[in-house]
Amino acid sequence: MFKGSMASEDVAEVVQALKSAAEPTRLRLLFLLSQAEYTVGELAAVLNQSQPRISRHLRLLTEAGFLNRLREQQCVYYRASSNGRYLAWLRQLLAMADPDAPMLRRDRERAVKVVGDRARVAAQLLGSAETPASEATAASAGLAAAADAPEWSRLLLEELGAAPVGELLDIGTGSGLMLQILGPRARRAVGLDISAPALRLARTRVHGAGLAHCEFRRGDMYSLPYDDASFDTVSIDRVLAAAEQPASAIAEAARTLKADGRLIIVEDFDQIDARAADNPLSELRRWFAAAGMSAERLRPCDLGGRHFIVALAHHRHRPPQLIDTSQLAGLA
Question: What angle do CA 63, 230, 149 make, to 5 degrees?
Answer without folding.
Answer: 100
